[in-house]
Write a structure and sequence with these properties.
The structure holds three protein chains of three kinds. Chain A is an alpha/beta fold. In chain A, 17% of the residues lie in helices and 50% in strands. In chain A, helix 1 packs across helix 2. Chain A is globular and about 55 Å long. In chain C, helix 3 packs parallel to helix 5. The longest helix of chain C has 16 residues. The N and C termini of chain C lie far apart (42 Å). The chains are: A alpha/beta, B alpha/beta, C alpha/beta. Chains B and C meet through helix 5, helix 10, helix 11 and helix 12 of B and helix 2 and helix 3 of C.
Chain lengths: 197, 465, 264
């Protein structure tokens, strides 16, 4: 079963609803958005839906992201990953909802939001919401927010890399990491664009 | 088996005694009720004024629009003040027979001998018994009921009362401030460590009773105290209301641990506001077990106001048939290098509902803040529900924040593994649940840990048996 | 008490409608060691799960799994364990927060019955609990003794079972459980994979000790090396859900040289 890839469906700003009833769908959004409202309704069994949203906040960007993983029927997997690198005095507000309906058994829903703060004035609000009405499931949410790890900086410095370069390197790596388990020509292009970001 | 049978068979503290009282206010809430309570207690004017003002706040404030369903509360059908005895006793033999028997059955006198440095027992609206180890008194530790505290240490109480939790904080804090009675007042002087816990036990006996105790704990610099409270009530067909306010001040370098095992019967609305202000390098730990009650809404909070202050909330909740446990924790980082950890474990079974509701806030000027939130939920059957509503509101620079939430059922593989070892299905289930809450149970004093595990097994027999 | 034989006749088992075991016969007498070998996907792990009564598999009506004269069909895993069946899992699942010792102790009490009642009374919040259990001291003695025999570090006792354990630690904990519970029939599903030589010897010694104790043993394995330490009474080759040939240790050696090719 070949996954279907949807690359950059949101443009700069948009509201999109995805209804998935079969197969495997991977949705990737590159940096450059300021508003996303994405809802995934899963109505079939044995579906795999993966959504990856990569954000880079600059200057006084005010970025608002909402995602919804709505499991209407059981036996499917969904995964949402929102990764952001936030610079200057940019703000991001992320609200991620997972709702599993009563009979959507054997659901496996995963949601993750990782934010890397590149500036002391950058701000993050992360609000996950889990509403679980089924009992036969696994549902996991995780979020981290933090500045660049000083051990990583020290390691790269000790390899002779210029200090100015390091934070960019780590930030790009941070976003690229979001694509690590996906392999397709469509994603290669995204990866290349990120590398020169 | 019907749900009511289950409640009656599993809840061993559900017995009730004939009501004994010196005074019982008429049902419902009025200025007159508030004045009567204040008058009977012989309070200073400033307290009576706070009470009356709070009554008007209570009337103005709306019921919370979020959280659990509170539509079953009828404020006009509640007794706000019941004074069971004339004077509080400091010797066990002085307590009226009916009440003494209640505490004998609960086991308070025995516990006092073995495990505790001080005991306070509240029956209906008033503390009927209190005692404190004489060694602690010599060191200057104060452990008394709030009413005596107000008489004997009015200045200290006036300085802090309502300052950690304002009467306008929420509708139930207003209500408590207006009609409060009983609760504990604790003061631990500089550098004094109280090695064994102080225990308070709260009992509602009368039907349609509202219990509104008020607790204030002040831990002076470098001191340590562990305060433990337990709660129970008889099983009645009508609902009771328990709405406490607990204010804690943790001064520089002090540490306070506050442990609650709430096992109200399933006809009690348990709506409690608990908050601690933690100064520089102080540590506040809330350990909160919610097993009983019909509805609980409780989010113990830490306000970290001094550099390097630390706050922890460990919360475990079980919701069975007809129960909604809406619990969690709140950490507000108002100073640099402060850290917090909230760990919540909840179990829902038999159609029960658990919700985790939490907030982590970092103020604009607070640097180097660290916070970790972990909430895990276990759902035992298809009729039960679990929700997670964590909120992070970050204004400060570059904090390190982690949040994890997991909702799952008991794994088939784990069940097969344990049953293949000869353990019956029901016991295997209980073992997995006990393992699930173990990180919190291990923080409890041994007797409480045993009791919590036992309560949970009983509850689970009821819900899945 | 005299140990009974495990008798498997015409065993058909399927998983989600797909037949995996297709008419398997096997008899294991007390004190015998039987080795079951076979290529990947031949149904070896299914066999071990089915003997233990895993609810994941459907068993046909004509299938028979007997312990002595007792038909095990329809008997739950815990009751099978109480009857004396044991399975050492190939990759045992972690049970967070539940210690090795508490699994062992609960299992031991369930299988071998209460020898002493311990009454705990908690005065603070009322209530008495009666825990039927073996005297903890005696029990701990047994566990420590067996752990020492297989070189298992006691520090593992209080850790959550299999939670973050290394491969070797998992296998040893499964072996320890077998020794402590002293079953009538024990199935070891790839107990030898991923073990270093010392651990392999320790596990083999455990199996030999159980054999002396009259336990009937099935060793499921890919490799010959464990057979150098535990001499099997019989070797069975399993292919596509059936035993296609049985023989002695020599049969195992033949497999090592020539592979399963001639059986497929």
């Amino acid at each position: 079963m070949n996954p279907e890839y949807i690359i950059n469906p949101f443009g700069k700003s948009s509201t999109r609803e995805f209804t998935v009833s079969s197969g495997s769908v991977i949705i990737v959004q590159e940096p450059g958005v300021n508003r996303i409202d994405a809802a995934i309704h899963i109505t079939g069994t044995n579906c795999d839906v993966q959504m990856i949203i990569l954000i880079a906040g600059h200057s006084s960007d005010n970025i608002i992201i909402t995602t919804q993983q709505h499991h209407v029927s059981g036996g499917s997997r969904s995964s949402v990953l929102v990764k952001s690198i936030m610079d200057d005095s940019s703000h991001i507000t992320y609200t991620g909802m997972i709702r599993v309906e009563k009979n959507a058994n054997r659901t496996d829903a995963y949601q993750r939001n990782d934010n890397l703060l590149l500036s002391e004035s950058a701000r993050v609000v992360s609000e996950p919401v889990l509403e679980i009405l089924s009992n036969d499931l696994r549902c996991t949410h995780g979020a981290t927010t933090g500045p660049i790890n000083t051990d990583q900086v020290w390691y790269l410095l000790s390899r002779g890399i210029d200090k100015k370069e390091i934070s960019g390197m780590i930030a790009r790596g941070f976003l690229l990491d979001g694509l690590k388990n996906i392999d397709s020509p469509a994603i290669h292009a995204v990866r290349q664009r990120l590398e020169i970001l | 088996m019907k749900t009511t049978d289950l409640i009656n068979t599993s809840y061993t503290l559900g017995f009730h005694k004939p009501e004994v009282y010196q005074y019982k206010s008429p049902k419902g809430l009025s200025e007159k009720t508030v004045e009567t309570i204040s008058g009977m207690k012989g309070e200073p004017d400033w307290m009576r004024e706070i009470r009356l003002k709070s009554l008007s706040y209570f009337r103005d404030k709306k019921m919370p629009s979020w959280g659990a369903d509170l539509s079953g509360i009828n404020f006009d059908d509640i007794y706000y003040y019941i004074r069971p005895v004339k004077d509080r006793a400091s010797r066990w033999s002085e307590i009226p027979e009916e009440i003494k028997d209640t505490y004998d059955r609960i086991g308070i006198p025995e516990a006092e001998k073995k495990f505790l440095m001080g005991v306070s027992a509240q029956y209906e609206s008033e503390v009927v018994y209190k005692s404190i180890n004489s060694m602690l008194t010599k060191k200057g530790v104060i452990f008394s009921d709030m009413d005596s505290g107000l008489r004997e240490y009015p200045d200290m109480i006036r300085q802090y009362f309502g300052h950690i939790i304002s009467p306008t904080d929420n509708k139930f804090a207003s209500l408590n401030t207006s009609v409060w009675s009983g609760g504990s007042f604790v003061y631990v002087p500089k550098g004094v460590r109280v090695e064994l816990p102080l225990q308070a036990y709260f009992r509602i006996n009368a039907a349609n009773m509202g219990q509104f105790e008020r607790t204030l704990i002040i831990a002076d610099e470098g001191s340590f105290v562990h305060y433990v409270e337990g709660c129970s009530a008889p099983v009645y067909s009508t609902d009771s209301l328990h709405s406490a306010v607990v204010e804690i001040i943790v001064k520089k370098g002090a540490r306070v641990r506050y442990t609650t095992i709430q096992n109200w019967s399933k006809n009690v609305y348990n709506l409690v506001t608990k908050r601690a202000r933690v100064e520089e390098e102080g540590i506040m730990e809330w350990v909160d077990g919610n097993i009983g009650s019909k509805v609980t809404m409780k989010y113990p909070s830490v306000y970290l106001v001094g550099r390097k202050a630390r706050g922890e909330v460990l919360s475990v909740a079980y919701a069975g048939a007809g129960q909604h446990q809406d619990a969690g924790g709140k950490a507000v980082h108002l100073a640099s290098e402060t850290s917090s950890q909230i760990i919540s474990k909840s179990i829902s079974g038999g159609g029960g509902r658990t919700s985790y509701r939490g907030l982590v806030e970092v103020a604009q000027h607070a640097r180097g803040v660290k916070s970790r939130v972990v909430c895990d939920a276990l759902i035992l059957d298809g009729d039960s529900r679990s929700d997670t509503y964590p909120t992070m509101n970050i204004k400060g620079p570059s904090p390190t924040l982690e949040h994890e939430a997991t909702v799952s059922k008991i794994g088939d593989e784990q069940m097969f593994y344990l049953t293949s070892r000869g353990i019956a299905e029901h016991d295997a289930r209980a073992m997995i649940v006990n393992g699930f809450i173990e990180p919190i149970v291990k923080e409890l004093p041994l007797e409480y840990a045993v009791e919590l595990n036992r309560l949970l097994s009983l509850e689970m027999e009821g819900s899945v048996g | 008490m005299k140990n009974e034989s495990l008798i498997i006749k015409n065993l058909h088992a399927s998983f989600e409608g797909k037949e995996i075991l297709r008419g398997l016969d096997l008899t294991v007498k007390p004190g015998e060691v039987h080795t079951v070998m076979g290529p990947n996907g031949s149904g070896k792990s299914t066999l071990s799960s089915v003997i233990m009564g895993s609810p994941l598999y459907d068993i046909s009506h004509s299938s028979r799994i007997m312990l002595g004269k007792k038909n095990l069909n329809g008997i739950s895993p815990d009751d099978r364990a109480k009857l004396g069946i044991f399975l050492a899992f190939q990759s045992p699942v972690a049970v967070p927060g539940v210690s090795v010792l508490s699994v062992l102790r609960s299992a031991y009490s369930a299988i071998h019955g209460a020898t002493k009642k311990i009454v705990q009374h908690n005065p603070v919040l009322s209530g008495r609990m009666v825990t039927p259990s073996v005297s903890f001291k005696d029990f701990l003695g047994i566990v420590k003794h067996e752990a020492k025999n297989i070189g298992l570090d006691e520090s593992l006792f209080t850790r959550a079972i299999h939670d973050g354990f290394s491969g070797g630690e998992r296998k040893k904990v499964e072996m320890l459980t077998a020794l402590v519970l002293a079953p009538k029939i024990a199935v070891f599903d790839e107990i030898d994979t991923g073990l270093d030589v010392d651990a392999l010897r320790a596990v083999s010694d455990g199996i030999s000790a159980m054999k002396k104790g009259d336990t009937g043993i099935i060793v499921i394995t890919h490799y010959l090396r464990i057979l150098k330490y535990v001499k099997p009474d019989a070797v069975h080759i399993m292919v596509k859900g059936k035993i296609v040939q049985s023989g002695s240790y020599i049969l195992a050696k033949k497999i090592e040289e020539k592979g399963y090719g001639s059986f497929i």
